[in-house]
From TrEMBL:
PANTHER family documented for this protein: OLFACTORY RECEPTOR (PTHR48002)
Domain G-protein coupled receptors family 1 profile: 41-287
Keyword Cell membrane: yes
Gene Ontology CC annotations of this record: plasma membrane
Principal location listed in the UniProt entry: membrane
Annotated Pfam families: 7tm_4
Compartments where located: Cell membrane; Membrane
Gene3D superfamilies found in the cross-reference section: Rhodopsin 7-helix transmembrane proteins
UniProt similarity note: Belongs to the G-protein coupled receptor 1 family.
GO molecular function, one term: olfactory receptor activity
Source species of the chain: Trichechus manatus latirostris
The protein's name in its UniProt record: Olfactory receptor
Residue stretches spanning the membrane: 23-47, 59-78, 98-120, 141-164, 205-225, 237-258, 270-289
Mode of membrane association: Multi-pass membrane protein
């Protein structure tokens, strides 16, 4: 896609998360410590699942992909944000902004679809256990994985297409610490009402529908678990509860950001900060802390390498 000739803005000035220099340095240190602790944990989850044959079930296959998506997602915004904390002028080129926006929605859309796939996996495992090995075969798992990657790509291309059609002739100050559709649209020197409506339908409405659909799905699963008397009842409850926590962490901020495009809210930056920097790394960790099989395999892996 070509950039329109009416676009004369070649870079955007990011106003950042906060203006106070002292608070910026404090946030920089806290984020850096957080990343040095949590980010290796995500890669440890991936390594544990790949190295333990006992974790070959579809549930762990999708958990490993969740950790990969979240770790990749965290590299889109946070590194540049940390660099900007140490610089006086926070500038990103027009093409760099479009690239950041593309990968933000590519990985974010893929992760949203992955949570839907994980809900489907739990529904089959708990409500249709006799058909689980047939329905969730390795071939099906890889097909679902390719589908969610493709879905994230299509979602992202639509977002990028909305931006590339807009002319930008100034101002170029972006009231955020990264490039995202709601803030970039507001800088266009044309009427953006229709574009903002399309953004609401592409991001806001789809996110809301996925969120409500997932809640209904897990309500059905929990009701089935509640009525059953199987030995794995507690494990199923723990797994579903963890999934629901991740759903709220993933979709809650996204709904807040993408369903209110026509007005700037004071909490936008704070919600965006947790949505793009903190929560992506926490999702797989939250799941792992509530999964005994993964924790046990992780301890064995660490003990084995520590002994060597």
């Amino acid at each position: 896609m070509e950039i329109r000739n009416s676009t004369v803005v070649t870079e955007f000035v990011l106003l950042g998360l906060i203006q106070s220099r002292d608070i910026q340095l404090l946030v920089f240190v806290l984020i850096l410590i957080f990343y040095l602790i949590i980010l290796p944990g995500n890669f440890l989850i991936i390594l544990t699942i790949r190295s333990d044959p006992g974790l070959s079930a579809p549930l762990y296959f999708f958990l490993g992909n969740l950790a990969f998506l979240d770790a990749s997602y965290s590299f889109i915004v946070a590194p540049r944000m940390l660099a900007d904390f140490l610089s006086e002028k926070k500038v990103i080129s027009y093409r760099g902004c479009i690239t950041q926006l593309f990968f933000l929605h590519f990985l974010g859309g893929g992760e949203g679809l992955l949570l839907v796939v994980m809900a489907f996996d739990r529904y089959i495992a708990i409500c249709r256990p006799l058909h689980y090995s047939t329905v969730m075969s390795p071939r099906t798992c890889y097909a679902l994985l390719l589908t969610l990657w493709f879905g994230g790509f299509v979602h992202s291309i639509i977002q990028v297409a909305l931006i590339l059609r807009l002319p930008f002739c100034g101002p170029n100050q972006l009231d955020n610490f990264f490039c995202d559709v709601p803030q970039v649209i507001k800088l266009a020197c044309t009427n953006t009402f229709v574009v903002e409506l399309l953004m609401v339908f592409n991001s806001g409405l789809l996110t809301l529908l996925c969120f409500l659909g997932l809640l209904v799905s897990y309500a059905v699963i929990l009701w089935h678990v509640y009525r059953s008397s199987s030995e794995g009842k507690n494990k199923a409850l723990s797994t579903c509860t963890t999934h629901i926590i991740i759903i709220f962490l993933m979709f809650g901020p996204a709904i807040f950001i993408y369903t209110c495009p026509f007005r700037a809210l004071s909490a936008d930056k704070v919600v965006s900060f947790f949505h793009t920097v903190i929560f992506p790394l926490m999702n797989p960790v939250i799941y792992t802390l509530r999964n005994q099989e993964v924790k046990s395999s992780m301890r064995k892996l660490l003990s084995r390498h520590a002994f060597c």
